[in-house]
């Protein structure tokens, strides 16, 4: 048992070093995708499904209205006419009158996934062929559209997606979430890009042509799946087109996050990942370097080796985390590195919770996750 634990810790340290190397390599030459597609700037429809108000909602939305891009429109959708986001969007339309903004209110829930119902309604209203979809809690810079649309200049590219980093955490819970996003989840995405041939996508950004969406059967094809973004990527890849991970990092504005919100969100992600990619889910255990090292202590509590391994695991974890934060221009994250061991134990706990169960909570609503990744509203 002790030998197995040592092997797992060694493999986990190896994973951290390789993931760090690949992450730094990926972000070392930013703008390469844009440079290869200089001058490509087709009209774009930005689709924003909204439900309630996330932290910094006004500035999040406004960042999409202030793009350095020739021609684009921004379309928002809400299901409830009394949604507080309606007032924020109306204020934006007054504050930025030059922006082309539309709001669809009272979206009918045609699919089990309410986000996809909103996307279907927005796509029907969109004026342009290129669609860019982004979650409501994301914030971007003025060069965002140019960067994410650029890979679509190549006809063999069918979908562009972006990773994200957590910014402006105002509570300990939010700081822990920022650590997870920045130095755990982000390198996982880069590693998955290498091994899974980019047959997945992230809701932070989805950029695609309307014609490619139609080729896979439209939103109807993914409307009942919880992970509609990865379903979209998988189906587009099956048509022979490429899914590209952009080198643009979107900011997830965290603000105040409660323990319950974080727990529900991370368990939802974990259970979705387990259903969608069960083999890869088992491999996530290699990302828990510090928890794995601590497991050695009960096996040999007085042994010098076990304590040295724990210390070495901490050094490798903190060093690789710093190198990733530096490469992704997220050095402010280093202020929270004292909490990184706690974050890793919480990630291990979330992984354990995700290994079983099929019930998830999303935006206050309860759903049952089916074996094929589809979702059903849960009564009660």
Total number of beta strands: 13
Order of helices and strands: HHEHEHEHEEHEEHEHHEEHHHHHHEEE
Q: Compute the separation of the termini in Å.
A: 44 Å
Structural class: alpha/beta
Q: Estimate the mean pLDDT confidence.
A: 94
Strand content: 15-25%
CATH class of the largest domain: Alpha Beta
CATH-defined superfamily of the largest domain: Spore Coat Polysaccharide Biosynthesis Protein SpsA, Chain A
Number of domains: 2
CATH topology of the largest domain: Spore Coat Polysaccharide Biosynthesis Protein SpsA, Chain A
Percentage of residues assigned to helices: 40-55%
Count of discrete alpha- or pi-helical segments spanning 4 or more residues: 15
What does this structure look like?
This protein is α/β, with parallel strands linked by helices and 380 residues long. It has 2 domains: 2-24 and 265-349, no CATH class; 27-262, Spore Coat Polysaccharide Biosynthesis Protein SpsA, Chain A (Alpha-Beta Complex), CATH 3.90.550. The chain is built from 15 helices and 13 strands. The chain has helices at residues 2-28, 32-35, 57-65, 85-95, 114-125, 144-149, 172-195, 210-215, 228-238, 259-276, 278-283, 289-294, 296-299, 304-327, 340-354; strands at residues 44-49, 72-78, 101-105, 130-133, 138-139, 157-161, 164-169, 206-209, 242-245, 250-255, 359-362, 365-369, 375-377. A 7-stranded mixed β-sheet has the order 3-2-1-4-8-6-9, sandwiched between helices. A 3-stranded mixed β-sheet has the order 5-10-7. The protein has a 3-stranded antiparallel β-sheet with strand order 11-12-13. Strand 11 and strand 12 form a beta hairpin. Helix 1 (2-28) packs parallel to helix 14, helix 7 (172-195) crosses helix 14 and helix 7 (172-195) packs across helix 15 (340-354). It is globular, with a radius of gyration of 21 Å. The chain starts with a helix and ends with a strand. The model has no long low-confidence stretch (mean pLDDT 94).
